[in-house]
Write a structure and sequence with these properties.
7-stranded antiparallel β-sheet, alpha+beta, 147 residues
């Protein structure tokens, strides 16, 4: 078993505070950003950043569906951390300035992967697949914030 990591980033037109607020708005905006890979989205507690508990199912492949129950924290300014109660998965969203009226959004997901040959394939292919999912979500974020 080893640590698996997937990272995606995008420059978004918008002030870092506005971009961060959009990401942290689990009650409204976040649901609009999700791709077809996400289903059964439900805010169970909170809804705005720190203290939020949110549920969704993530279908990364036709055979792989992960049931996620995520606790949201804000350990530092511009950072949201989603820890899955159902697995070792942790997703960190970091929003920083990227020049005048622009923001860099970096999303990194880590989890403890499987061992053996299955783990090899997971470490090889899962980050690429998850990267594509988050790339599409970041495109949706850019479209939402740039309205």
């Amino acid at each position: 078993m080893g640590q698996v990591e997937a990272t995606t980033e995008r420059i978004v037109t918008g002030k870092p505070e506005d971009v961060f607020d959009a990401l942290a708005d689990y009650s409204d905006t976040r649901a609009k950003l999700l791709t077809e890979h996400f289903s059964e989205y439900e805010v169970r507690e909170g809804g705005d950043g720190e203290g939020t508990l949110v549920h969704w199912k993530l279908q990364a492949t036709s055979k792989r569906v992960r049931d996620c129950l995520l606790e949201v924290t804000e350990p530092t300014d511009g950072q949201l951390v989603e820890k899955d109660r159902n697995s070792s998965m942790v997703t960190t969203w970091t929003v920083t300035p990227a020049g005048e009226g622009r923001s860099r959004v970096v999303v990194t997901t880590t989890w403890t992967g499987a061992g053996g040959i299955g783990g090899f394939f997971e470490r090889t292919f899962a980050p690429k697949g998850l990267g594509r999912i988050y790339d599409a979500l970041l495109a949706n974020l850019a479209a939402e914030v740039e309205k």
